[in-house]
Amino acid sequence: MSLNRRSFITTSSAAATLAWAPKVHSASKDKKYRTALIGSGWWGMNILREALAAGQTKVVALCDVDSDKLELAAEEVNDLCGDQPKTYGDFRELFDKENIEIAIIATPDHWHALNTIAALNAGAHIFIEKPTGHTIGESQAMLAAANAAQRVVQVGLHRRIGPHHVSGMEFLKQGGAGNIGLVKMFVHNRGGKETPTKNSPPPETLDWEMYCGPAPLRPYNRMIHPGGFRHYLDFANGTLGDWGVHWLDQMLWWCDQQSPISVHSIGGRPVRGEAVLNELEQTSDAPDSQVATYQFETFTAIWEHRRFAGDGPEKSSVGCYFYGDKGTFHMGWRDGWTFYPDDPKKPVVHQNSDLQEPDGHNIQLLWADFLRAIETGKKPVAGIEVGHQATTLSLLGMLSMKLGRSVRWDADQQRIVDDEAANALLRREYRAPWVYPELT
Amino acid sequence: MILNTYGNGFGLTWVLLVGAVTIWIPTTVARGEDWHRWRGPNSDGISRQSDWSTRWPNEKPNIAWTQSVGTGFSSIVVRGDHAFTIGHQDGQDVVVCLSVSDGREVWRYGYPASLDDRDFEGGPTSTPTVDGDRLYVLSRGGDLFCFDCVTGELVWQQQIADLAEVRLPGWGFSASPVVIGDHLLVNAGESGAAVNKQDGTLLWSSADRESGYATPVLIPDSQPTTAIFASSRAYIGVDIRSGEKLWSERWLTSFNCNAADPILRGDRMFLSSGYNRGGALYQFVDGQPQLLWKTKEMQNQLHTSILYQDHLYGIDGDMDAGARLKCLKWETGEVAWSVDDLSPGGMSIADGKLILITESGELIISPATPQGWNPIAGGQVIQGKCRTVPVLSGGRIYCRSVQGAVVCISCRD
Predict the structure, then answer these.
(1) Domain A5-160+362-382 belongs to what architecture?
(2) What is the Cα gyration radius of chain B?
């Protein structure tokens, strides 16, 4: 790809302040969008299957650094719809050679910014899996690029549109739980000490150099790929950077996208044990437990995850508690939502979930909304700003944990207040030849 | 298994490989209808035994005895009065021989092995194989043993990965050794390895690529005698005398997890894997497999389906995401029925009935018919997680939990 990132970013940041003004397609329901999938693993194919099911997708290209994943995906696409997508190992080549109208991006987090900016430069609308960026600076650059390109970006926050989330949010916003003073977001799993796994030569079918891309080149380990990148901080941001983005987004949805004044987080690996990375073996390095507090003007929000101990006495292992002066509201996952009045004599209110299985999501609805946004110019429910804000909160938590102190966030300036050491962590160094998408 | 949780749902959670089968051996006499190897006397998951009954007192499974054998997924095989399995106890793997009448331990043999619980609970995943008075055992790390069934005396021992100079697959070896004549076939390397069953000397080996997790399956009446080996990326027909590859059907699966054994009938072959791979039926034409149909409706992550009469009965989907019990028409792949909320943990068939254990340890008996799932007997038999196939032998059903409880249920009239 012949993308000159630096000149692009300069242009895009100048345009970043423009109001939302997507180009409206006068497309009919017969319109088939020339679609590419970047990252054709498990989740990417989940999205692509929904795209195909919606009937307006022609799959022209697939891209993955794992040629087995690519071959499997191409075979499935062919079986599903007869399309014979071209396959690529390098997204730059794909965007150079193909005329793409929609790009689905489902690579590991550390690739999101460069993939997205390349796709926007190629003129594509984008459906990108959350989080937006791996660092806040990347997410800011993606936001600026999307606004400049005037393309629809839908972030994979399907909980913005899932039926029980919509009805639960209505319940909350109508005051069902009363005046809410505290929100707790959480995910709990089981787990124990982590034994290092031996490194090995990368499989012949994997372009490991390209997998690592802008991240440091570390020894290959089968626990990273396929399917394990989320707990390696070079490539993702652990549980807070994964589940956390969904539940932070629910909280932001409820509070109408307010910004926190300050963020503080602590966490570590007291159970999994110290992270190991050497030539012979490695473990993951994401925290096995973490707490983050977000201080807003009128309420406090807390994130807590632990990858051990199970649910304990709690009824749910995942979700958001909204604590109000009428009771506790639980926004859950497969368990739907439930409101527990503070007066035990009053009845518990419950709504079941309505999800697509086996993976328990609502991508079908989110994809339909994405197409609607492309066709009508209406904002998508989980647009780039929404994704950016939820991602930013999760990354501020990670940043505070690494820094070892709380940070004050200025959302307007997109900067941490009076802490240059902290601001330095808004970005990371890329491994050459990749260039960090700076906002200049 | 990959123990990461995706915010999108619990995905790719785990892989566990219980692909253990032996083969009907024309030149070796199996003892009566003993369930002497994984997938049973006829290598099809079916017992022909009919003199058993679920008319239990109190209408609850009649538990004859329980025993603890250690962590693992190895299923039970039987030779006469003795049952065999493997478990991980006190920092080593232990092969145990139990008395079928009371569960008493007759002999045991421990060998060094790590629990290796990084991706799942750990412990041995292959099932031992009885051949005459010999018992063959393969560890996840590649230690291959031959025991005297009666005394537990070690006859010979080899390290197959070293001997064949091949790597271990990601979760270690999980296939059962398979006896064909004097050959002991092991799924190690790209297309297997064979040793002399008498002394363990290497007969042939294959390329140093990852094996799959399914047990080799003999193609009946094949010329030359052919066994199918699951590699990490294909199912491969191999001349068992020379080790030569005769054909290869490319079969890519996430995590290289080809764990279900091929199912053969006539000139047809069914393959299936999990992780959204699905299944396919092939017909051999001029010795090469040709696709007849494909389906996403039968994704065998760990367990091989069972072909009974004209239908496939199998566990569809990834276990951690909640697998389904399904019945498919063999000829077309069409779904006859599906039970979505059962959480099946393993099953076999005897006398036209499905013998199924749920993941939470409930044993359920239901006629194997395309008409539907209609349990006729059952009850809780184990507290713990079950992913090991329950088997019937000599009027007893043997169930096992991951945590190592073996429960014997009497079905003798």
Answers:
(1) 3-Layer(aba) Sandwich (3.40)
(2) 19
